[in-house]
Design goal:
The complex is a heterodimer of chains A (483) and B (216). Chain A is built from 16 helices and no strands. Chain A is mainly α. The longest helix of chain B has 29 residues. Chain B has two domains: 30 residues; 130 residues, Cytochrome Bc1 Complex, Chain D, domain 2. Chain B is of the alpha+beta class and 216 residues long. The chains are: A mainly alpha (483), B alpha+beta (216). Chains A and B meet through α1, α2, α4, α7 and α8 of A and α1, α2, β3, β4 and α4 of B.
Chain lengths: 483, 216
């Protein structure tokens, strides 16, 4: 029997041991994301800061790539975490999974070092293969792309083979199909063309169909497992909701891809298709809020793991507001003509990525830590609970300040640069130097510092939560075996 | 629940999820075939690379109710007319340069990228280059070493990225070609650089419409 409060991998199954490795790298990369975000934010206020050393482009690239990779690591970790529980079988090919973890991590380190030290290359194909692909979010050079595909395939093998050996639950089935789509879509971003319209067309297949479709379904699976784990919600209810979410998410999100096809050279019919389907995209997010809040209320907020439940609820609302409301605000072509490529997009990006994805990974970190410390108590009156509460508050307060600062700057840009100024460079800088824009950037930076302090507190809490607890976790009232 | 209502049943939603996903994906595939055809270089929406041999303008189209690119008379880039293959090689070199120098993590291209520096969709047509006579050379010089050039009043400067003269010229070719893409009126209300030819002698007839006059 494990000793409560002591962090030891003896408390974990094979998949979970591997998951904790992914989680550790994820949280380190989350820190890197925050750091480079702060540096890039400072450059808006003081453009000479690190000019010629770590230019805005480098900081921004590291900021967004650290985000993509830490979320991917968080997702992969979360799936390994639930794999043996869900399937009822030990992970098939765990040795391969462990090897791939080290390969993946090493590749990430090399890519980051090249981004930091080499930064740019000559205008030749070899630069794209070795240094930087120069395409937003998927800047990783081609060798790393191939490495990512290999790693994801090995991960997929672990997941599919384990479910096949054990049992395919509803969550397992959705997860496996979703991972096929996730791995397959990445291939759409792995070729070169001089044609920028074609380039952007396929690039959106990766970016949109990942972020607004397959990632959403993945967090739907994670939420389903999270609600069962933290509150003992009945599996039948959770899985029915999951299918509803999948139907609504793919039903709106797949053709919602069209809202990125308004201005890149693609035909005019995308105005109608993209506008219509992307306007429906918030609906599944409403369903997720109803689902999470209803279940939490039904169980009278009684939970085995308060911090995890708090982050799951934060996810439901963050996803709805960040992806749903903030996305809907500028998704119709009539407004998007003026907001496309302004801080409006950045505001939406920050709220959506944090609200929909970072929150869910953090919830899983707390679920993991509870078991890692031997199934320790994590409900009300937890020792040192102020840390997780203040962390969740500071992270959200900082995020909201950033998002509102960028939104106001985006409003101002849409009006001054686009609607009045005529979108040329003089108009661009008239908007960038406008007092309202600069105020937005100033408050964004303040928000960034608050967010960073929240991150530090979160990291501290993750290292210490449950350490001094000797009570065992409370049991779910309606916990039931898989249906 | 003793009697399960059909619309609340797990199996109904599982089937719905499969059918809705499959149907949406099939529709997307059909649309993708058509879209890819329409955005292949050499199509009306995305012109062939040799369009850099001509003047490119951005003119209001009353029927479509937004500005569209208009291909004007011959105006070869750097005074040299290129074949389709040469033009493609040059534009491709420029595109590779924009990727290798990571332009998109400060600028937007077709509105996508980062928001620290101006959009480059119509960079070729931006009035900031002064006049069409000095534009090509100014762009090349700026790209090769922007650090000491005039930028703006807020102190943001493009860094020196080690762009060679060849790469700079290729990048200009890429930017000129990109300005010919039909972007459904993005950016809106844009006032392009004056590209009209020098006024004809007073006795001459007004020049025939070539559709390249700057929009008012």
């Amino acid at each position: 029997m494990s000793v409560l409060g002591i962090l030891t991998s003896a408390n974990l199954n094979g998949g979970q041991k591997l998951a904790t490795k992914y989680f550790t790298v994820a949280i380190a990369l989350f820190g890197a994301q925050v750091l480079f975000g702060l540096l890039a934010g400072i450059q808006y206020l003081n453009p000479d800061f690190l000019y010629g050393i770590l230019d805005f482009s480098v900081n921004r690239m590291l900021h967004i790539n650290a985000m993509v990779v830490w979320l991917l690591f968080g997702f992969i970790g979360s799936v390994y975490w639930l794999l043996e529980d869900e399937s009822g079988a030990p992970v098939v090919g765990l040795g391969l999974g462990n090897l791939i973890f080290w390969v993946f991590t090493l590749a990430v380190v090399v890519v980051v070092l090249v981004f930091l030290l080499v930064q740019v290359g000559p205008g030749e194909l070899k630069s794209i293969w070795l240094i930087n692909e120069g395409r937003e979010y998927i800047e990783a050079p081609r060798w790393a792309d191939i490495g990512i595909v290999v790693c994801v395939l090995a991960f997929f093998f672990n997941v599919a083979a384990t479910f096949a050996k054990g049992k395919f639950t509803g969550i397992g089935g959705v997860l496996v199909l979703d991972l096929i789509a996730l791995a397959g879509l990445y291939l759409a971003g792995m070729w070169y063309t001089p044609n920028i319209s074609m380039d952007q067309h396929w690039w959106w297949w990766v970016i949109h169909l990942w972020v607004e479709a397959t990632w959403e379904v993945l967090v739907g699976c994670l939420m389903a497992y999270g609600l069962i784990t933290t509150m003992g919600v009945r599996r039948r209810i959770v899985e029915t909701w999951l299918y509803i979410e999948v139907a609504l998410m793919f039903g709106s999100g797949i053709l919602g891809l069209g809202h990125h096809y308004f201005w890149i050279g693609t035909p005019e019919y995308w105005f109608t298709i993209g506008g219509f389907f992307s306007a429906l995209e918030p609906i599944p997010l409403v369903a997720m809020v109803v689902h999470a809040v209803f279940d939490a209320g039904h169980h009278k907020l009684k939970s085995t793991n308060h911090p995890a439940l708090a982050w799951i609820i934060a996810q439901a609302f963050g996803n709805f507001f960040g992806a749903g409301v903030w996305g809907f605000m500028h998704t119709l072509p009539q407004i998007n003509l003026y907001t496309h490529g302004t801080q409006w997009t950045a505001s939406h990006g920050h709220l959506a990525f944090f609200g929909a994805y970072a929150t869910m990974v953090i919830a899983f970190l707390y679920i993991a830590l509870q078991k890692w410390r031997g199934g320790v108590y994590m409900s009300s009156n937890l020792a040192g609970a102020w840390k997780w509460k203040w962390a969740i508050f500071l992270l959200h307060a900082g995020l909201i300040a950033m998002v509102m600062g960028m939104l106001i700057a985006g409003y101002e840009q849409s009006q001054i640069e686009r609607a009045i100024g005529g979108s040329d460079w003089v108009a661009y800088f008239a908007a960038q130097s406008h007092r309202w824009f600069m105020q937005g950037m100033f408050w964004r930076q303040i928000g960034g510092w608050v967010f960073a302090s929240g991150f530090v507190l979160l990291a501290w809490d993750l290292m210490t939560i449950g350490k001094r607890e000797t009570r065992p976790a409370v049991q779910n009232e309606t916990a039931e075996a898989a249906a | 629940m003793a009697q399960e209502i059909w619309w609340a049943s797990t199996s109904f939603w599982r089937k719905s999820a499969i059918w809705v996903t499959g149907f949406s994906f099939v529709v997307l595939i059909f649309l993708t075939f058509d879209t890819v055809k329409q955005i292949t270089a050499g199509s009306p929406r995305v012109p062939a690379y040799s369009v850099i041999n001509n003047r490119i303008d951005y003119v209001f189209d009353a029927k479509r109710n937004f500005q569209v690119p208009v291909i004007g008379p011959e105006e070869p880039l750097f005074g040299k007319k290129l074949t389709e293959e040469e033009a493609e090689a040059l534009v491709s070199h420029g595109k590779l340069t924009t990727q290798a120098k990571n332009c998109m993590d400060c600028h937007t291209l077709l509105g996508n990228g980062a928001y620290y520096a101006p959009d480059l969709t119509k960079a070729w047509l931006d009035p900031s280059w002064g006049s069409k006579e000095v534009r090509e050379q100014s762009m090349v010089e700026f790209l090769m070493d922007p650090s000491d050039k005039l930028h703006n009043s807020i102190g943001r400067r493009m860094p020196k990225l080690g762009i060679t003269e060849e790469e700079a010229k290729a990048t200009v070719a890429f930017l000129k070609w990109m300005s010919s893409i039909d972007t459904n009126g993005f950016p809106a209300n844009f006032k392009p650089i004056d590209q009209a030819d020098a006024p004809a002698p007073a006795t001459a007839e007004p020049a025939a419409e070539v559709g390249a006059a700057p929009v008012q």
